[in-house]
Specification:
By secondary structure, the protein is an all-alpha fold. 76% of the residues lie in helices and 0% in strands. α7 crosses α8 (151-171). The radius of gyration is 19 Å and the shape is elongated. Residues 34-53 bind DNA. It holds the Pfam family TetR_C_41. Keywords: DNA-binding. Residues 11-71 form the HTH tetR-type domain.
Length: 198
């Protein structure tokens, strides 16, 4: 097989496995998902999974990165319609928290992700979110909308608050009732960063 075609096949297989993993992890959960059924559903073998991801946990990491990246994009889209940059920042956080009600997000990113991949703040997808928040926070501070503080510290606290609120909603016994409390507390905490200058 020509090297270019081989690379295309590998990318195709990787995409198929991520799609199959996403479907299986969302419906059955990571622990219950069968590698044999997952790989067979896309006409591949366990060997293809091992070759592309190392193991089932590696596949979960790839699926979490994909879903978490989509969450960040959805949050940015929600923020884009929220008015000024301050309201956009708050709307992004609230939208991220609200995604805890999405069954796929809840199961894959907020329940199984931390359980099997460890601390979400160390995930590459969360680091990308942090970098974007740092840029926004830096601009808001420069414009006098936010109080002067260490930009990274403020961004980490805002990102961490949204993430932890989403984790709380996802793990609660009654996520729909927990969500408004989590969003209200997030907004109240964020207001502490806001400058008195409008």
């Amino acid at each position: 097989m020509a090297p270019r075609r081989r690379l295309e096949t590998m990318e195709e297989n990787r995409g198929k496995l991520i799609a199959a993993g996403r479907k299986a992890f969302a419906s059955d959960g990571f622990a219950a998902a069968s590698m044999d059924e997952l790989t067979a559903s896309v006409g591949l073998t366990r060997g293809a999974l091992y070759h592309n991801f190392g193991d089932k946990t590696g596949l979960l990491a790839a699926v979490v990165a994909q879903v978490d990246g989509e969450m960040a994009a959805r949050a940015r889209a929600a923020g884009a319609d929220a008015g000024d940059e301050w309201e956009q920042l708050l709307a992004e956080g609230a939208a991220y928290i609200a995604m805890a009600l999405d069954p796929e997000v809840r199961r894959i990113v907020l329940l199984d992700g931390p359980a099997f991949l460890g601390d979400p703040s160390r995930w590459p997808s969360q680091n990308a979110c942090l970098q974007a928040t740092k840029q926004t926070v830096g601009k808001l501070m420069a414009d006098g909308v936010m109080k002067s503080a260490d930009v990274e510290a403020a961004a980490r606290l805002l990102c961490g608050a949204a993430l932890n609120a989403a984790l709380w909603v996802a793990a609660s016994d009654d996520p729909p009732s927990t969500l408004p409390k989590a969003v209200a507390a997030f907004r109240l905490m964020a207001e502490g960063f806001r400058s008195g200058r409008r």
